[in-house]
Amino acid sequence: MEKLLVPARAPAPLSLPSGLAFDEATPSWMSKADNAWQLTAATLVGLQSIPGLVILYGGGVKKKWAINSAFMAFYAFACVLFCWVSWGYRMSFGEELVPFWGKANVALDQQFLLDQAFLGKFPNATMVFFQSVFAAITLILIAGALLGRMNFYAWMMFVPLWLTFSYSFVAFSIWCPKGFLFKNGLIDYSGGFVIHLSAGVAGFTAAYWVGPRLAKDRERCPPNNIILMLAGAGLLWMGWTGFNGGDPYAASVDASLAVLNTHLCTATSLLTWLALDILYFGKASVIGAIQGMITGLVCITPAAGVVQGWAAIIMGLCSGSIPWFTMMVVHNKSKLLQKIDDTMAILHTHAIAGSLGGILTGLFAEPRLCYLFSGSYGQYVGLFYGFQMRQIHAGFRQIGIQFLGILYVMTINVIVTSIICLLIQFVVPLRMSDQDMEIGDEAVHGEEAYAIWGDGHRQDSSWYPNSGNPETELPVTKRKAAASEVEMT
């Protein structure tokens, strides 16, 4: 007879997350529609960074900086995700350590990831990914102010430090239900403060510490590929459907309104900027149109689902004109602003546009729409509706808390960014050497974006030994001559 094989001891029962049965892939608290939309929105936001900003930056700089600029964005996306699940998410949305900061902890425990998120009818795994792409794009926007001269190794250190000691502060304070600005009723629908104002101020501050590009690169810095810039800008614009549409944490009517307002404000802003360019410069600038698109996207972000359509149009008119004025007029007359080399004008397109959006949100936030978004009636009242509803105190309180949020975000980012830059200087230089900046990508990465000689092949660095050593490396002109001679033979 065959022997019956019996295990020596029975396996231990599986430990499942609370509320999740053994065979329950869709627990009772989860909405399949909301979860699907949240994952889609997160992917759309991720596409804004890679490839959106990767190719926007790669096409918007001189040819010699195409790879370095694109790779700064590519690296930041990967680094942020790793740091986010390791400690960043819990510091931004976890247990309170102090009123503006959470306790550091990993976000990879199975029970935690499969449990319901603190907001929304989907698991924490979805929320962790959704919030990670917002954190990533913030660092990538900061990179826009530093293109063309920051030491890449310094950038590699800057990303995790700034995420840990600046982004998590602001995100916890404004977005986490335990944060003090959240409790006080600050309206930041999808990141006008947390992302854009933070990135604009931090980028401008870091640009001060890093220093400027070479003088000739600042004086003449034509994009190497405007068509590529348009492609990146298009991904940025369409990706904003997930950026603002995902922040109700539900496939709701408020999400639909946020998406429509986003595109309406953006189109209005682009057209306004374009009209001003034509009126004052006599030409319809493609780069100007991209700038107007970005300021519109940024301005509507803190208000997307809590303002009516007519308000979105007014915000578009403001975002297409006020940042245009600060960039084209104020910047050119200010010696301080000209001294700091902000490569992609992040101060104007993100800090100023984000602040503008936050203030206009305090004016136009409609109480009923705020209730649809937050579930709290009476705490969020735009100033104009405060007059209309005879709740003037509530209206002034709202505009006051919006200004407080701007001041808080600016203060945190100036101080923390400065400290981080000063600390990094003790390890590696913040700025590349003048010799490396003369050459560009080939000196920094040993690679080039576009081949410009031969049969379309980039020159093989093995032709000159000790590549990267200025004492032994052949000059660029001799290298090209050597390559041509080899090709002829």
Automatic annotation (TrEMBL):
Matching SUPFAM superfamilies: Ammonium transporter
Region (Disordered): 464-489
Predominant place of localization: membrane
Subcellular localization: Cell membrane; Membrane
Keyword tags: Ammonia transport, Membrane, Transmembrane, Transmembrane helix, Transport
Membrane topology label: Multi-pass membrane protein
Ammonium transporter AmtB-like domain location: 36-450
Superkingdom field: Eukaryota
Keyword Magnesium: no
One Pfam family hit: Ammonium_transp
Transmembrane residue ranges: 37-58, 65-87, 128-147, 154-175, 187-211, 223-243, 286-304, 310-331, 343-365, 371-387, 399-428
Family: Belongs to the ammonia transporter channel (TC 1.A.11.2) family.
Protein name in the entry: Ammonium transporter
Naturally occurring in which organism (per UniProt): Hevea brasiliensis (Para rubber tree)
